[in-house]
Amino acid sequence: MVTRTRTATAVALLCALALPVSTAATASASAVAPRLSAPSSPSVPAPAAPRSSVASSVPAAFVSAARAELPAPTGPYAVGSSVLHLVDRSRPDPWVREAGARELMVTLHYPAARHSGPPGPRPAPAPYATTEEARLLLRGLNLEQAVPAARLAEMRTHSRRDARPARGRHPLVLLSPGFGVSRYTLTHLAEDLAGRGYVVASVDHAYESLGTAMPGGRVLTCEACTAVEEGGVDESLVAATRADDMSFVIDRLTGCHAVTKYAAMIDKRRIGMAGHSIGGAAAATAMVADRRIGAGINMDGGFQEELPSGGLGGRPFMMLGTDDAVHRPGGSDTSWNTVWPALDGWKRWLTVAGSEHFTFSDSPVISRHFGLPQPPLPADRAVAITRTYVAAFLDVHLRGMDRPVLDGPTAAQPEVRFHRP
Q1: How far is CA 208 from CA 97, 171, 181, in A?
Q2: CB under 8 Å to 97, separation ≥6 — which residues?
Q3: Which segment of the chain is annotated as a signal peptide (predicted)?
């Protein structure tokens, strides 16, 4: 279970279920928003917060007049992006049966050729989110008075829509966001990985976010939140559903009938998955279900089920979380302690001092820009650490590269602790 001090981070824009049902059940579902809660200590239930309490605590003068901007990618490639609408007609949506086939929205970030000037105009910058998606997120987190939806939606990204792809074949990385939030909340990481030479598929799982824009002007809301928090549905269904989603995404990006013109640049022999919160838990679930996923990362999520007796079949896995009484060895999220010995391949258990649950997303950048409360770890360090360790892990296991930063503590990354229980 995540400690009560993290309730403040729900104000930092991203609220997601971090822990398995067994430990999360005692947290108040109304800690920050009617449907999403900031995880809290099992011994200290989170008190309900009035809808106006968050917004009123953030003076409007703190909001920068400048346009918000994500940190630039660090790799050698330019970054392109394309949005895909995928429909799996082989299975119904588990949250809204009358919706019919399971739908997914996918943003593909990929290595693009550097623009060399005329002839021809440069492709347009990719949008961060739609205004309606941003509005629904902010309303759900009680932040609509503190952060203008249009300002969040127009945050500057560093990818260009349908830019010409770089030559060669590149590893594929699947990204899954936290429960209740959308794929765009992992954009800084997705763009950075694409700039380093990965094709990145960030997935919105239908009815599992506060707002997901769909073709035809439809916007799906979080029916899964209601099912879990009010209907008694076990959170393991979320992880299992996402595992099925990711297998379908792999099929549609790499199969004989790939749906995107960028399929030719994907090396289907090299696939990894990372996720935040329940998206990180889903990475392990997906690896159990689909051996095509060769490596996985869980960023501060509680595992939803134990691994089978065969573990992950020797495939590598990294746990990256907060350095506190939750995710240190022996911490209150007992799922990490249970899963660790079952990981039967290369593995790392890393925690980050001064971080909180939402450190591993775009939240630090958003919170800093809009004057929202922030944890001790500065936004620049949060971004750098997340990018450095996620990329290093993927470089080692999908590209066979040497990355000493994963060998143990370094002076350049003093906040990162290595655990070998």
Answers
A1: 14, 27, 8
A2: none
A3: 1-27
Mean pLDDT of 191-200: 98
Confidence of residue 255 (pLDDT cuts 50, 70, 90): confident
Both tokens assigned to 394: 């993927």
Give the span between the Cα atoms of 203 and 230, in whole angstroms: 25
Distance, CA of 203 to chain centre: 9
Instruction: Judge if pTM exceeds 0.90.
Output: no
Q: How much is the average pLDDT of 77-104?
A: 96
- CA–centroid distance for 22 within its chain: 22
- pLDDT band of 64, cuts 50, 70, 90: low
Verify cis geometry, omega within 30 degrees of 0, for the bond prior to 119: yes
Which range has the worst mean pLDDT, 60-64, 150-154, 303-307, 314-318?
Answer: 60-64
Residues in the chain: 421
Inform me whether the pLDDT recorded for 15 exceeds 80. no
CA distances from 412 to 385, 386, 397 (A): 10, 14, 22
> In whole angstroms, how far apart are CA 173 and each of 34, 93, 200, 349?
33, 24, 5, 20
Question: What are the CA-CA distances from residue 372 to residues 155, 157, 209, 234, 301 (Å)?
Answer: 16, 20, 22, 32, 23
132: three-class secondary structure by DSSP: helix
Paired sense of beta strands 199-205 and 101-112, if any: antiparallel
Helix axes 236-254, 278-289, angle to 10 degrees: 60
4-419 placed in CATH 3.50.50.60: no
The predicted pLDDT at position 120 comes to: 62
Residue 385, token pair as written in the block: 């650490």
Residue 21 or residue 394, greater confidence: 394
| Rounded Cα–Cα distance for residues 7 and 136 (Å) | 20
* Contact by Cβ (8 Å): 264, 256: no
Q: Identify the three-state secondary structure at position 116.
A: coil
Residues 288 and 319 sit within 8 Å (Cβ to Cβ): no
Which range (110-124, 188-202, 253-267, 305-319) has the least confidence?
110-124
Q: What does DSSP assign to residue 26?
A: T
Q: Positive or negative, the Cα torsion across 90, 235, 20, 201?
A: positive
Q: Give the DSSP H/E element, type plus range, for residue 281.
A: helix 278-289
DSSP string across 197-257: T-EEEEEEETTSBS-EE-GGG-EE--HHHHHHHTS---THHHHHHHHHHHHHHHHHHHSTT
